[in-house]
Design goal:
Elements lengths: L5 H4 L2 H26 L6 H40 L1 H37 L3 H34 L5 H41 L11 H38 L14 H32 L5 H27 L4 H25 L1 H9 L4 H14 L2 H30 L3 H24 L3 H50 L12 H42 L12 H15 L1 H18 L1 H37 L11 H42 L3
């Protein structure tokens, strides 16, 4: 093996390098955190408002963590008795790291928002961009750093354990289940506050967005953090872990005829080893690449903000592809790995660009124009845009899967998902930049800083809206590839267990009644989760509207700016709604797979996963892009781009109605469905050995 370089990969250096690189990522996260904290905070009013936002955000997280602690304890005990206490500990580690990433990132975001506003007061747009970007980098590097640190620790500690498969599967379940609750809970909170505040303020009272008289504005700004920072961070963290674990699981359990030849002149043992370590090594390289890309983006701060952020998203796929092209020969690994990784990275970039088009270009203008004839035509056009937007991304996912499968089989599909998520830190940095800029604009408006400050924050916020839409498309596309890989890993895990018991393999035939039953059951679940989250937002938003109207009626002098609103009551309504309504979707994802597998067997569970994947992936993209189009159509009118119509007109109000429908579409239900299909897949992978003989 010395001659082909494989021993350099099979060395102590690369066995421990991922954990070390994870620590390096966290070091840079800490660096950006303290850099942001060292910047000027602004005047007393700005700090008071920022304090309300920070207090509300952290109060929500602590109450959410209390709820999740009960869930975590129950699952920990269940895994401990079913699979052993080491896998149970891995589950806890995955969950804790997910929570920690969200906590650190949101803490940084709630410090960066007011400092971004203060920088905008100076009139220096490049530095304002830099502050928001640095705040987002804390989240991005925390997510990627903690993810690769956790996987590195698990691998270096337990790689020789007999139950290594169960350990990595449990780690992924910990990350996935927490991500589901965090994303859905945060999404319900942020959209209930947003929709309720908009209805009471813009539609009923006809006052501007972020008006300090509106008690829902603070809750709305809190929601940006708990949904789009902490929730999205847990989502991307989970995607990264699930992609790595899917590739590792296939390498561990693939029968000899499906195990790709990765190592030149290597046997089955060498190929399995390489297949297990490669996804971790590539993800570690992705962290290094992301750090470089963040510093390159920072150096371009004087450019147009939209161009800076787009370049930040483009750099990692290019650099990761080059790094893989250089490293594979040094490790004695086939360049089929590079082709699979690059296919995934390019596919992610294309999905991002398509999402950008449908949420910021001609389709948005058409949705805005449809508002002229009423809210109904606005809704019809937005729905059509969302449906149309699904086609190209799904085709791209299929093409990526075909290319990767051609070179490395099912393992290649898993590696393409790893490649798509190679720039996780940058994707999350750019995504977290959005709510920081949005908060900065809200603080500016509520502090009365004037139009020149708001002009800077609005421009940065507009760019953030576009990059947030790109991030959602990217997350859903990577989720689809990851679930395809996890589905394959589940089937291999089942047959591996059956082979050990001397039983024949499960054949997944479309004519098998159990597979068909599973397909039908799986197709229902995304609708159940989508409906429950939409209803949750609607119910909570209605309660918030009533409370805001009560405050307008009963607080003397509020509308004349002679009295302060009571934002804590709105925060409390949104928090209670989010924590109570996130339970059902979470239980669906965690409980349904083992129940179906136990009662109907592995073939039915495989059908369940396939049905939920086909329906869930398209539904999630449809919801995310339709919501983005409605949101930006409203902003298109507000900027005066629809000639003859301006902010406050009936046409604008029609667009606001579309945005109110689109908000839970794009920020609650769509992301919730995307995580649902991932959580179901990793839970199924964890219980595969337990239900394989049914």
């Amino acid at each position: 093996m010395e001659t082909n370089g494989f021993t350099s990969l099979n060395s102590g250096l690369w066995l421990n390098a991922p954990a070390v690189i994870g620590v390096i990522g966290l070091f840079f996260a800490i660096f950006f955190y303290f850099r942001v904290k060292s910047l000027p905070e602004g005047n007393e009013t700005m700090n008071r408002i920022a304090g309300y936002i920070r207090e509300g955000a952290m109060a929500f997280l602590f109450r959410q963590y209390q709820t999740l602690a009960v869930f975590g304890a129950v699952v920990f005990v269940a895994i401990g008795f079913a699979l052993g206490w080491v896998p149970a500990g891995a589950f806890l580690l995955g969950a804790i790291l997910s929570l920690l990433a969200g906590f650190v990132g949101m803490k940084a975001a709630t410090y960066a928002n007011v400092r971004t506003t203060q920088c905008a007061r100076s009139g220096n747009k490049p530095n304002t961009l830099l502050v928001a970007l640095d705040g987002g980098a804390v989240m991005g590097l925390s997510v990627a750093g903690l993810g690769i640190l956790g996987m590195g620790i698990i691998y270096s500690t337990f790689r020789d354990a007999a139950n290594f498969s169960n350990i990595i599967h449990a780690f992924a379940v910990g990350a996935s289940s927490i991500a589901l609750f965090a994303r859905i809970g945060g999404g319900i909170y942020t959209k209930a506050a947003d929709v309720g505040s908009d209805i009471a303020g813009k539609v009923i009272e006809n006052i501007p967005e972020d008006d300090p008289r509106n008690p829902g504005v603070i809750a709305d700004n809190v929601g940006d953090n708990v949904g789009d920072v902490a929730g999205m961070g847990a989502d991307i963290y989970e995607s990264m872990i699930a992609a790595i674990v899917a590739a590792m699981a296939i390498a561990l359990t693939a029968p000899g005829n499906l195990l790709p030849s990765l190592v030149a002149a290597g046997g089955e043992t060498e190929n399995r080893f390489a297949g297990v370590i490669l996804p971790i090594a590539l993800s570690a390289i992705g962290v290094v690449v992301s750090i470089v890309a963040i510093f390159i983006a920072r150096s371009l701060k004087a450019m147009n903000p939209a161009m800076v952020l787009r370049l930040a998203l483009i750099f990692p796929p290019i650099m990761l592809g080059l790094a893989s092209f250089i490293m594979m020969p040094l490790w004695g690994i086939t360049q089929g790995v590079t082709i699979s990784v690059v296919a995934g990275a390019i596919g992610g970039a294309i999905i991002g660009l398509v999402t950008d088009y449908y949420t910021s270009s001609t389709p948005v203008a058409r949705v805005a124009e449809a508002s002229i004839t009423g809210a109904g035509t606005n809704l019809i056009r937005g729905l059509a845009v969302g449906m149309e937007s699904v086609a190209i991304p799904m085709f791209v996912v299929a093409a990526v899967a075909w290319i990767a499968d051609h070179y490395l089989g099912l393992y290649g599909i898993a590696l393409s998902a790893v490649g798509m998520l190679g720039g996780t830190a940058v994707v999350m940095t750019v995504d977290a930049y959005g709510p920081i800029s949005d908060n900065a604009g809200g603080i500016s408006e509520m502090s009365g800083l004037g139009p020149e400050v708001r002009a800077i924050t609005d421009e940065l916020d507009a760019v953030g809206n576009t990059t947030a839409a790109i991030g959602k498309g990217f997350a859903i596309g990577s989720a689809t590839l990851t679930v395809v890989a996890l589905f394959s890993a589940f089937n291999m895990e089942v047959n591996h267990a059956r082979s050990a018991a001397g039983l024949p393999d499960v054949q997944l035939l479309i004519t098998d009644a159990k597979v068909l039953i599973g397909l039908l059951l799986g197709s229902i679940l995304p609708f159940i989760v989508g409906a429950s989250t939409m209803l949750a937002v609607g119910k909570a938003a209605g309660a918030i509207v009533e409370e805001i109207r009560r405050q307008f009626r009963e607080i003397p002098g509020l509308m004349e700016l002679k009295a302060e609103p009571e934002p804590k009551k709105i925060v409390d309504i949104a928090t209670k709604a989010a924590l109570s309504e996130m339970i059902l979707p979470g239980l669906v994802a965690v409980v349904v797979p083992p129940v179906v597998g136990y009662l109907l067997g592995p073939a039915a569970l495989a059908g369940l996963l396939a049905g939920s994947l086909a329906v869930g992936a398209t539904m999630a993209l449809f919801m995310a892009n339709a919501g983005g189009a409605w949101d930006n159509a409203k902003k298109y009118i507000e900027k005066g781009n629809l000639k003859g119509y301006k902010k406050g007109s009936d046409v604008h109000k029609n667009a606001v109605v579309g945005d109110m429908v689109g908000d839970p579409f794009k920020d609650t239900s769509g992301p919730g469905v995307a995580i649902l299909i991932k959580v179901m897949s990793v839970v199924s992978l964890l219980v595969a050995g337990l239900i394989a003989l049914r």
